[in-house]
């Protein structure tokens, strides 16, 4: 989730209880380590609460669908009479209200969603009508300083400060996929619902997640890792990923003046952090969902570590997910058709320096 003040508060309470228990056992050094973690969470919490308030102030009341996405597309099961060639309808798969118990038909198994592809889920979203032209924060030259005054009849030059913004574009890109089906399938509600909800949508959304991270389409989505201006952490730490994340957090705060809210990392790196033991044989990290005050995001599309403020970029959907039926090639004479799902979206990165990336190759280098 983008805004996680409740989760952060719950994590803070756990750390407070842990610190109290350590003090009761006279483990002062360990308690001080926990105190540092609490301070980091407090800093992140203050930032996230402020961003949540901004979102509430600018949010619009949206109509919430009262049906699942398949029901939005196919209509009520009792009223379903099959799909016709040329059928097309749009729906919103992001919000579903369950109004009654749902029976899962196990004889039609759906595809399992990817367990850890969720970087895109941390970004905010605002609808767009097409490509977006915007201003991207760029470098600052100079800074205010003391004026030397007048000396020997000459006035000293005052400090010049230049703030720069550069024009940028968030280009839309359509992500689509289709499934060949028999004509008989168009009359089978359960099979259609399974194809739409448990297969096509998952694949399209997973592809979108990868594009938001590593996309490099010069006429479409440029992922954050390929966006000019993001910060790079290239210091070799000999595989001490836990320490690198803390250094990267400081780098973003110092250079971008943003408080990172999330840390996205490859599951192999997260596993290494979880299993790392100190010289005394104790695990360094107990595997909760927070590192240095930031929510942990595991994602197979991220090859290293990405520390970032999730409010520095946002998804800009142009067309929501749509589903349509039609013929491809010679399917007309083969009693086949295709069910196509697609969405058009863009990625707007307003503050590139709110993202700091380190490759695993650099992190594994021996410390200088």
Automatic annotation (TrEMBL):
InterPro entries: Phage_capsid (IPR024455), Phage_capsid-like_C (IPR054612). It comes from the Bacteria. Its main location: virion. Pfam families: Phage_capsid. The chain crosses the membrane at residues 221-242. Coiled coil: none annotated. This is Phage major capsid protein.
């Amino acid at each position: 989730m983008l805004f996680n003040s409740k989760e952060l508060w719950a994590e803070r309470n756990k750390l407070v209880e842990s610190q109290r228990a350590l003090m009761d056992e006279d483990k002062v050094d360990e308690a001080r380590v926990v105190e540092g973690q609490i301070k980091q969470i407090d800093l992140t919490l203050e930032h996230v609460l402020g961003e949540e308030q901004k979102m509430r102030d600018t949010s619009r009341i949206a109509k919430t669908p009262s049906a699942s996405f398949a029901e939005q597309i196919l209509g009520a099961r009792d009223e379903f009479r099959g799909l016709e060639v040329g059928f097309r309808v749009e729906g919103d798969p992001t919000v579903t209200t369950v109004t009654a118990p749902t029976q899962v038909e196990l004889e039609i198994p759906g595809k399992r969603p990817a367990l850890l592809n969720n970087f895109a889920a941390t970004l905010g979203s605002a609808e767009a009508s097409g490509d977006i032209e915007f201003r991207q924060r760029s470098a600052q030259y100079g800074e205010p300083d003391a004026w030397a005054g007048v000396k020997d009849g000459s006035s000293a030059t005052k400090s010049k400060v230049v703030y720069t913004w550069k024009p940028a574009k968030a280009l839309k890109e359509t992500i689509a996929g289709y499934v060949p089906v028999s004509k008989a399938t168009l009359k089978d509600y359960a099979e259609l619902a399974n194809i739409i909800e448990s297969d096509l949508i998952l694949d399209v959304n997973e592809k979108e997640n990868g594009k938001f991270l590593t996309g490099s389409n010069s006429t479409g989505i440029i992922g954050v890792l390929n966006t000019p201006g993001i910060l790079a952490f290239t210091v070799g730490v000999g595989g001490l990923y836990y320490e690198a994340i803390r250094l990267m957090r400081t780098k973003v705060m110092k250079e971008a003046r943003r408080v990172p809210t999330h840390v996205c990392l490859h599951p192999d790196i997260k596993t290494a952090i979880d299993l790392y033991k100190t010289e005394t044989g104790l695990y360094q990290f107990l595997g909760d969902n927070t590192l240095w005050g930031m929510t942990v995001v595991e994602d197979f599309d991220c090859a290293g570590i990405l520390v970032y403020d999730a409010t520095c970029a946002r998804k800009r959907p142009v067309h929501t997910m749509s589903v349509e039926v039609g013929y491809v090639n010679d399917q007309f004479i083969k009693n086949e058709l295709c069910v196509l799902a697609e969405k058009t979206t863009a990625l707007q990165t307003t503050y590139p320096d709110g993202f700091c990336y380190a490759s695993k190759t650099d992190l594994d280098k021996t410390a200088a």
